[in-house]
């Protein structure tokens, strides 16, 4: 057993998988326009990040097979048969323990929210390193219902203990939705969400009225009640256990990045503006029905004042949609899981299209750059080359690039993007019922093929529109005048903005010019001031086409901050020409004295 020194492991792994801006909404089927449970989720993370989609087929496993996820986590015996599942993967250099979402063949959807800053005194022992990522993956493989998902997860907690600070898991199927709140060790509470209510949760524990006498709708690990009584945090005569106050510190509920989202969400859902974080509801019964479009609208919410600083549009956002929101998904959970309709963005939801898909039919080609087996094997062991820019990995090269450009260009481009999104989504909403109706008449492989073809067509239609938009948004090529960029040195690295016959570079503003990784992949919501500032500026004809170009130099270690040494990275130039914003990027390998570029990968569609 590892003793309370496990705190050190928790802190280390928090840096790997903490998603301190995720949001989850659950709409009960009695207040749902579709008559189905609706689950909506924003996933937020920073750093070099690729969001991939996979379908993992059902499988039969050999006796004695063990599951090993994080290197320091416990090894867990595999079961003989596992379900197939749709997997939306957050692929980052050190492995994301707490970001992936799933929807399995039995119709169980899984989403999670970080809920940390628990009281140190409540930290418990774990076995053999405990469990983290394994909960979500194992539930996806084994759970035939949301209720069974809770049972599977809590048995794993009892056996191994949770190594992370805390988290709330949402498990939902067509019949029931449950939430399971866990803090480090074997300490948890689970609640069935009523059919006539809505639940919203950001990144703090929200359950406040655990009814210890209601065994049907509440489940709780009993020893934590005993500990809370002993610690003076709960009255033994009170049958209502206030989980969020007993378990976690008040400060996390009052943090702007949690409180702002709660204010926005509950005003949207109830019309009431709650300003006291101690009075934010966990759930509410409302007098109207909500649909998929409402769920999308909630995931796109941010404060009215963002954008006022004239930097990146989302620089100040600590609302539901923000810089680090890299994908969103809405599930309309049907009785037949193969007919469950999902809508997924590839990028920040307020600047991205919710693309329709049927998760169990398999995602479109191009939404991943590797197969699911490799993705599983590399999830916690990705080499630098895995994080190369890939022109053919369109979630990054097209969708993420486009939202990054929009966030800098701002102004009329934001309104233009909103109008385009509304047009595309209106078309897809109008056409979707006929697709589902047609699919319902098909069986087996015929249905899967029909729906997979739809997934591919829907993705590619939006892809082509976004490619055209990117060409319009970034018409001036950027060229980095170096074969590699060194992240450990402050040597100059030159970025050239190439003039064209239609666009002059004269009137460039060096003081307004910055360079960095894509802002979508930085960890801070206020990152523009940390980007590398231009050191020099010079006009010259770089590509000898007779048209003047402008060359800015930056310090190499500043422009590569948070880059992945050994990977070919897309590095961005943000500048202004005669007061008009101009943005673009080029790709160059990044290295350090310890990590050199292993090979020339230019022939693999990466440069």
Could you provide a short overview of the structure?
27% of the residues lie in helices and 25% in strands. By secondary structure, the chain is α+β, with helices and mostly antiparallel strands.
Q: Major sheet: order of its strands? A: 3-8-9-10-11-12-13-16
How is the biggest beta sheet arranged? 8 strands, antiparallel
The CA-CA distance between the termini, in Å, is 48 Å
Radius of gyration based on Cα positions: 24 Å
Q: How helix-rich are the residues, as a percent range?
A: 25-40%
Model description:
With 607 residues, the protein is α+β, with helices and mostly antiparallel strands. Helices cover 27% and strands 25% of the residues. An eight-stranded antiparallel beta sheet has the order 3-8-9-10-11-12-13-16. Strands 18-14-1-2-19-20-21 form a seven-stranded antiparallel beta sheet. It has a five-stranded mixed beta sheet with strand order 23-30-29-25-26. A hairpin with a 2-residue loop joins strand 29 (568-577) and strand 30. Helix 2 (133-142) packs across helix 3, helix 10 (394-409) crosses helix 12 (444-473) and helix 11 (412-440) packs antiparallel against helix 12.
Write a concise keyword list for the protein shown above.
eight-stranded antiparallel β-sheet, single chain, 607 residues, alpha+beta, disordered C terminus
What's the arrangement of secondary structure elements?
Blueprint: H1 6-17, E1 23-27, E2 38-44, E3 50-56, E4 59-60, E5 66-67, E6 76-77, E7 81-82, E8 85-91, E9 101-104, E10 109-114, H2 133-142, H3 146-160, E11 162-172, E12 177-185, E13 187-193, E14 198-201, E15 210-211, E16 218-220, H4 222-230, E17 240-241, H5 243-247, H6 250-254, H7 256-270, E18 283-284, H8 292-299, E19 325-332, E20 341-346, E21 355-357, H9 372-378, H10 394-409, H11 412-440, H12 444-473, E22 478-480, E23 485-486, E24 492-497, E25 514-517, E26 532-533, E27 536-540, E28 549-555, H13 556-559, E29 568-577, E30 580-591
Parallel strand pairs: 23-30
Antiparallel strand pairs: 1-2, 1-14, 2-19, 3-8, 4-7, 5-6, 8-9, 9-10, 10-11, 11-12, 12-13, 13-16, 14-18, 15-17, 19-20, 20-21, 22-24, 24-28, 25-26, 25-29, 27-28, 29-30
